[in-house]
Specification:
Structural class of chain B: alpha/beta
CATH topology of the largest domain in chain A: 2,3-Dihydroxybiphenyl 1,2-Dioxygenase, domain 1
Mean pLDDT of chain B: 94
Largest sheet of chain B: 8 strands, parallel, barrel
Structural class of chain A: alpha+beta
Mean pLDDT of chain A: 90
CATH superfamily of the largest domain in chain A: 2,3-Dihydroxybiphenyl 1,2-Dioxygenase, domain 1
CATH class of chain B: Alpha Beta
Order of helices and strands of chain A: HEHEEEHEHEEEHEEHEEEEHEE
Distance between the termini of chain B: 23 Å
Order of helices and strands of chain B: EHEHHEHEHEHEHEEHEHEH
Oligomer: heterodimer
Number of strands of chain A: 16
Shape of chain A: globular
Low-confidence stretches of chain A: none
Number of domains of chain B: 1
Largest interface: A-B, 18 and 13 residues
Radius of gyration of chain B: 19 Å
Strand order of the largest sheet of chain A: 6-7-8-5-1-4-3-2-9
CATH superfamily of chain B: Divalent-metal-dependent TIM barrel enzymes
CATH topology of chain B: TIM Barrel
Chain lengths: ~290, ~290
């Protein structure tokens, strides 16, 4: 007779029904791709490839892929306000992309019809907050999806190393007042994200509700408008910024400052061991460094 | 603050154009309106013109009605209803309404399994969630499986979803002769809509009688034969901490052939009765009482 320890103690496992395994890429939409490109390059990203049929550029550093979508026929590009870039999609690595999309739609997600042209990849997607989308990618081990839809930029190194060892740490989502419980339920139900207790904090901004992906590779932060602000902070819900994990925040800050990145420094908020926040540029683009 | 701020009329009570209805409500002193999908799609200028009329009226949408027979279906029927629900949610969001009213299913094709009904309603709530919409689930007194509010509350608890709550309608509670004691079981935060109306009969034993009365002969609170129960209902809701809106869901064939201002005046009288005689909330004191010297 054999009794395995897990059976005896009935230890619950964290469910991961989509087989989530990290972030494959993050997409920005902007009608001003060159301006955003300069910002990204200061952050250590390098343009490595261009889309075969649309005005889309792939940036990369280390294991982070970032796509800049400037395709004028895409409503998420034409719908940007004052040309300010927005985070328009997050692509998750999953076990089976079609199954992931089907499962989410069975649970109540809004599907996104494919816009793939001939010979291009159809990447299943659902609608996210605001105008954003969540893509599901399952071919990230055997070969690169970018080899199909993108053409490498000649003479450019295709796998530039990450500045200061940066990697994707998480996303910050701005939500409406009193909406934390709703979005927590949404992400738990759709993606098996797990809420993190309020006592456990990362980075330098202690606000909001935190969740962890079931694969443990990234965090998701939900931030409501500040209740003390009379008005002016009740904009539409959106994916607001990307967080990068670094092992030495101070070193990363120095390296980025040398590239021309400015950081928020005030009595309330300044770069420290736990993290740092870049100054917002182009009206909407900021990044966060988090000790990892 | 306006005395009538917590009360509103439904467009279904009044005859005429959307603009005429909205203007009459405003003239009567109301600041909110319960909209119906038909208000938008039957507007002679189209949906956009209807949306502009609502926005231009300055009235806040109490909610948007009504999604019927959504839950408990399977296969192609379920897929069809999900499509309908998505269109309703998009219209609801376009009006700025934060609450979609969904009524319990009357369909013989729907399952009676409460867990499946709860799962379907959770799916509806998930569809609504990114749009910032809450779903108020209401027990129709002629619903096949869910026809009394304690059962709708049971289903909502099973679904356990923050943006899925209960919609109460006094007509259905009185028609089904549901005990008001179960109001104490409700979480006031999860009551997303309360619709009030009364009627003139003491008994409506059959589903057919309930349907006919509900669709042609409801009256405003204070005008029917259940004033005492209606006051009891409202006071119980107040006691458990409900501070949301009261909307007058009055389908009445007579009111459909009266001038809108006459009907809106009846609604106003009803709101004043509820406010002063039932909830005993006093009107603001005149300005001169607040002047220091």
């Amino acid at each position: 007779m054999s009794l395995r320890k897990v059976d005896r103690e009935d230890v619950p496992e964290i469910p991961n029904r989509l087989g989530l395994a990290g972030i494959e890429f993050i997409e920005y939409a902007t009608p001003r791709p060159q301006a955003l490109g300069q910002v990204l390059e200061r952050m250590g990203f390098r343009p490595v490839a261009r889309h075969r049929s649309r005005e889309v550029t792939l940036y990369r550093q280390g294991d982070m892929n970032l796509v800049v979508n400037a395709s004028p026929e895409d409503a998420r590009v034409s719908g940007t306000v004052d040309g300010q870039p927005v985070i328009s999609a997050v692509a998750f690595r999953v076990q089976d992309a079609l199954k992931a999309q089907t499962r989410c739609m069975e649970l109540g997600a809004w599907g996104v019809p494919s816009q793939a042209q001939a010979m291009e990849l159809h990447i299943p997607a659902i609608h996210g907050p605001g105008r954003s989308r969540f893509y599901f990618v399952d071919r990230w081990q055997e070969f690169s999806i970018y080899d199909i839809d993108f053409k490498p930029i000649p003479t450019v190194q295709q796998n530039p190393p990450a500045l200061a060892g940066m990697s994707y740490f998480g996303l910050v989502q701005y939500i409406g007042a009193g909406r934390s419980a709703e979005w927590l339920t949404y992400y738990e139900h759709m993606f098996d994200f797990v809420p993190i207790p309020d006592e456990e904090r990362f980075g330098i901004l202690p606000k909001g509700k935190l969740m962890r992906s079931p694969c443990g590779t990234f965090l998701w932060q939900l931030i409501e408008p500040d209740p003390w602000m009379e008005s002016g902070d009740d904009g539409p819900e959106c994916l607001q910024r990307v967080g990068f994990g670094v092992s030495h925040v101070a070193q990363a800050v120095q390296a980025l400052k040398a590239c021309g990145v400015e950081f928020v420094e005030s009595t309330r908020l300044h770069p420290e061991d736990r993290g740092a926040l870049t100054r917002s540029v182009l009206g909407s683009v900021a990044f966060e460094l988090v000790h990892h | 603050m306006n005395m009538l701020d917590g009360y509103g009329m439904d467009t279904i009570t009044l005859a005429g154009s959307l603009e005429a209805k909205l203007a009459a409500m405003k003239r009567a002193g109301f600041s909110q309106v319960m909209l119906m999908a038909r208000d938008l799609v039957t507007h002679p200028g189209g949906v956009d013109a209807a949306l502009a009329a609502v926005a231009g009226s300055g009235l806040r949408p109490t909610g948007f009605q009504v999604l019927r027979d959504f839950e408990g279906l399977s296969g192609h029927l379920h897929e069809y209803k999900v499509d309908i629900a998505k269109s309703m949610l998009q219209m609801c969001a376009a009006t700025g309404a934060k609450v979609l009213l969904a009524c319990s299913s009357t369909s013989r094709h729907a399952t009676q399994d409460l867990d499946q009904i709860a799962a379907d309603l959770k799916k509806l709530a998930m569809l609504a969630l990114p749009l910032g919409i809450k779903v108020a689930y209401e027990a129709l007194s002629w619903g096949r499986t869910v026809n009394e509010f304690p059962v709708s509350w049971d289903v909502i608890c099973r679904a356990d979803c923050p943006n899925l709550g209960i919609g109460l309608d006094s007509f259905h509670i009185f028609a089904a002769k549901s005990s008001l004691d179960a109001i104490e079981e409700l979480d006031a935060e999860k009551i997303f809509l309360v619709q009030l109306s009364d009627f003139m009969w003491h008994e409506t034993p059959t589903f057919e009688e309930r349907m006919t009365t509900a669709r042609t002969f409801r009256v405003f609170p204070g005008e029917g034969v259940h004033s005492e129960q209606l006051a009891d209902l409202v006071m119980r809701l107040d006691r458990i901490g409900y501070r949301g809106d009261y909307s007058f869901e009055v389908f009445n064939d007579d009111y459909q052939q009266l001038p809108v201002d006459a009907v809106a005046a009846r609604a106003r009288r009803s709101a004043v009765w509820l406010h002063e005689n039932v909830l005993h909330r006093s009107a603001p004191l005149p300005t001169w009482t607040r002047q220091t010297s």
